[in-house]
Design goal:
Chain lengths: 89, 410
């Protein structure tokens, strides 16, 4: 989802992700929708796994592994989460 | 322009930081002479092997050696072909029949390795409308297998049946089939799946199947060595069992068994089965013979578990943190990779081989000295292993030697 999708996640979704990220953001990187998990936050595969599990609990969803290659930024994740929430309702 | 392999630079940097001082490293270990199931010469040093996954010690079973020699003479060194072309010999079919008898299942497929069995079955079984729910600690071959699948892949928290339940509940209205993927014994820490609870969760929902990888539990668990489903008493509830011949069975190769009525369809559509050469006849013959020894291996299983308990108790008494009780895998948790490397080097230099396992290949980011027991280990060997662990642990600052500890208590 590096190409513009035209989709804008809701501020609530982004705020919820920022809140969850607080405990994972050990280096105290300033968080914006464009913050990248791997390059900016230095998440390795184990941290990604734990972080996604907390996001899944918070939104009561399962994020398929298939989704993750398309998720580079917090904005990408917010869009993916909203898509899954919409599919479930 | 960046070099092809430049993207691995961070990993190689980590390797150099840990091993770059020229000391012995795990990637250099070479068995120069194999003395038995439990000892080898590594360079000039006689070494006790406590990290081979050779749980029942069948790699030198005389019956299997003879069968392998006979097959080698009769059929040659290899089949030079796929199972669906010229690579199915009478031995491959006999082995599949032996697997059906062993597990009490109607169908069996033999693959060239356990890795290929997972890769083939998991990439093929489920379709685009389906869901695979896998334990997060599953083996790399399972991760690679599901990556090739067109299904949606969902991970649940390791050994957490409640988390699995939650995820199945979210999918309850979706029409697709669901496959739960677990392992009987997880390789790194040696812990078992909570299979009874997982079966109970499975039964709450429609169209849910279970696939269990019994790589480390085949031959180890159950009265007849059929793995965790036998031990737990729920073999009919596990729809697919995948396993390997490279651990308790003492050779190499993989398999999948099932009662699914259309199982044979998989022979035509599983690419890791169709497009690779079949096992050499000598390997097939030794696997068939050893499978019989596994079935009748109650005494070996007892010895294995006695050895496992001895090592677990011995290492715990030193003050080391050991992951799982009553498991043929005894994994010592080191506080960080640097200490783990120093510990591992101390052991190998004193004549004890265990596996060094570092993150990200380990759960919880643990740095592990992973030992696996063999039924053929003697008490004397294990006493020596425990004494060497105590010495090295003290050297790397992880625990006091047993003698000192006793003195302090006294």
């Amino acid at each position: 989802m590096n190409a513009p999708t035209g989709a804008e996640p809701s501020p609530d979704t982004l705020a919820a992700l920022f809140e969850i990220l607080k405990s994972f953001n050990k280096a105290g990187v300033a968080l914006t929708p464009g913050t990248r998990f791997s390059e900016d936050l230095n998440f390795d595969s184990l941290v990604v796994m734990e972080f996604i599990a907390v996001v899944e609990d918070a939104f009561d969803i399962s994020v398929p592994l298939n989704t993750l290659p398309d998720v580079a930024t917090i904005n990408d994740l917010a869009i993916a989460v909203e898509k899954i929430v919409a599919e479930n309702t | 322009m960046a070099d092809l392999l430049d993207r691995f630079a961070p990993l190689m940097g980590q390797r150099d930081a840990l091993f770059g001082d020229g000391g012995v490293n795990p990637f250099q270990v070479k068995m120069d002479q194999v003395l038995s199931q439990t000892e080898a010469m590594i360079g000039n040093r006689r070494t006790i092997l406590v990290g081979t996954n050779n749980y029942l010690g069948l790699t030198f079973a005389p019956e299997a050696l003879k069968a392998a020699h006979d097959a080698l003479e009769a059929c040659g060194t290899g089949t030079t072909g796929s199972r669906v072309a010229n690579g199915t010999y009478y031995g491959h079919k006999e082995l599949e029949t032996a697997l059906c008898d062993f597990f009490g299942k109607q169908h069996a497929m033999v693959f060239s390795t356990g890795f290929l069995a997972n890769l083939g079955i998991l990439s093929t079984l489920m379709g685009p409308e389906d869901y695979i729910l896998m334990d997060a600690d599953c083996h790399a071959s399972i991760y690679d297998g599901v990556r090739g699948s067109t299904a949606q892949i969902i991970r649940f928290r390791h050994n957490d049946a409640a988390d699995l339940d939650k995820r199945l509940a979210r999918l309850a209205d979706k029409p697709g089939n669901k496959l739960i993927v677990i392992e009987g014994i997880y390789s790194m820490l040696g812990d078992k799946a909570p299979l009874a609870e997982i079966v109970a969760v499975k039964k709450k929902y429609e169209n849910v199947y279970i696939l269990s990888d019994e790589a480390h539990s085949l031959g180890v668990l159950g009265k007849y060595g059929r793995g965790l489903p036998e031990e737990v008493g729920c073999e009919d509830d596990v729809d697919f069992i995948v396993g390997t011949f490279s651990k308790s069975v003492g050779t190499v190769g993989g398999f999948c068994v099932s009662n699914h009525p259309q199982f044979d369809t998989l022979r035509l559509v599983t690419r890791a089965y169709v497009f690779t050469a079949s096992l050499p006849p000598s390997v097939v013959a030794s696997a068939t013979v050893n499978l019989g020894l596994v079935k009748n291996g109650g005494a070996l299983r007892k010895r294995l578990m006695r050895n496992a308990q001895k090592l677990h108790a011995g290492l715990t008494a030193i003050g080391l943190k050991v992951a799982s009780e009553n498991s043929p895998v005894v994994a010592v948790v080191a506080p960080d990779p640097v200490t783990a490397v120093a510990f591992w080097r101390g052991l190998i230099e004193a004549g004890v081989y265990v596996n060094l396992a570092l993150p990200p290949a380990t759960p919880y980011g643990y740095s592990l000295l992973r030992a696996s027991l063999c039924a053929a280990h003697t008490e004397e060997q294990l006493d020596k292993v425990i004494a060497i662990f105590a010495e090295v642990a003290a050297k790397v600052g992880l625990a006091a030697p047993v003698e000192k500890k006793r003195a302090a208590i006294g």
